[in-house]
Amino acid sequence: MSVHQSSNIKRITTHVLQEMKTRGEKISMLTAYDFSMAGILDGAGLDIILVGDSASNVMAGHETTLPITLDQMIYHASSVVRAVKRALVVVDIPFGSYQGNSSEALRSAIRIMKESGAHAVKVEGGAEIKESVVRILSAGVPVMGHLGLTPQSIYKFGTYTVRAKEEDEAAKLIADAKVLEECGCFAITLEKIPAKLAKKVAETVSIPVIGIGAGPYVDGQVLVVHDLLGITQEFKPRFLRQYADLRGVMTEAVEGYIKDVKSSDFPNDKESY
Ligand SMILES: Nc1nc(=O)c2c([nH]1)NC[C@@H]1CN(c3ccc(C(=O)N[C@@H](CCC(=O)O)C(=O)O)cc3)CN21
Ligand SMILES: CC(C)C(=O)C(=O)O
Ligand SMILES: [Mg+2]
């Protein structure tokens, strides 16, 4: 049954998420990039929909998240927003639209909010992007941080290996989390870091911490929905739990269609005018 069958839907806000952390209720988050998928996730009762820049990989077929543009992110985000009745919609600001220039960061965030109708933005980085985060927040736009494995700086690191395994990197990550909290971020995503370190971050900051490959001791979890549904090919990091084999289901359906077209079984009389 859809949660929307009840007449009054309580929307998820950043305040609701803070209450969930206080209560110890875990927060569920997944990506979506289009209207149809977002409607399914929202109807199922998901708390947060992330319009991730992983759309660059999943939707457009790029190797990295770097090529996707602000206009393309706004297109995805506006499609998602039209389907959502309850979830909080968070949009990644793409590479090159906020780093190192707080005026551009603010302009990008405002374009996303104005043109898509989303509720918040997400940015990768800590102290080095503080000015941009502060500027966006001062305009009244809620900001989610993102630390650990930050795919927009993949060429700085060179690999997708687990981050902050060394003491000094772990200390920097905790310091960055504190900076983001002090700036006024409403939540932080932690990607691919040791579970023990993620636990420490979730205990240190009072805002919700959402993990992907960051273990169970955080306030919520996020995955790319196409990975969870088994649509993505050849992406099986150990943090992923695959809940369905939609690639198999979809392939079988399309093969059935092809067979029926070839054999002239489709369309039949009932399917014709
Ligand atoms: N489909 C998809 N799912 C994601 O989770 C995702 C994207 N795309 N694109 C943007 C970023 C990139 N992310 C990644 C990318 C690679 C690994 C990873 O663990 N890769 C290898 C290990 C690499 C290594 O250890 O050197 C793996 O095991 O698959 C994790 C997260 C997460 N995001
Ligand atoms: C993996 C999540 C956290 C993300 O940033 C994305 O999907 O772009
Ligand atoms: Mg992202």
UniProtKB/TrEMBL annotation:
Which GO terms of the molecular function aspect are on file?
Answer: 3-methyl-2-oxobutanoate hydroxymethyltransferase activity; magnesium ion binding; methyltransferase activity
Q: What Gene3D superfamilies does the entry give?
A: Phosphoenolpyruvate-binding domains
One Pfam family assigned to this protein is Pantoate_transf
The family line of this record is:
Belongs to the PanB family.
SUPFAM superfamilies, sorted? Phosphoenolpyruvate/pyruvate domain
> How is the cofactor bound here?
Binds 1 Mg(2+) ion per subunit.
Name of this protein: 3-methyl-2-oxobutanoate hydroxymethyltransferase
Recorded hits in HAMAP family, A to Z, give:
PanB (MF_00156)
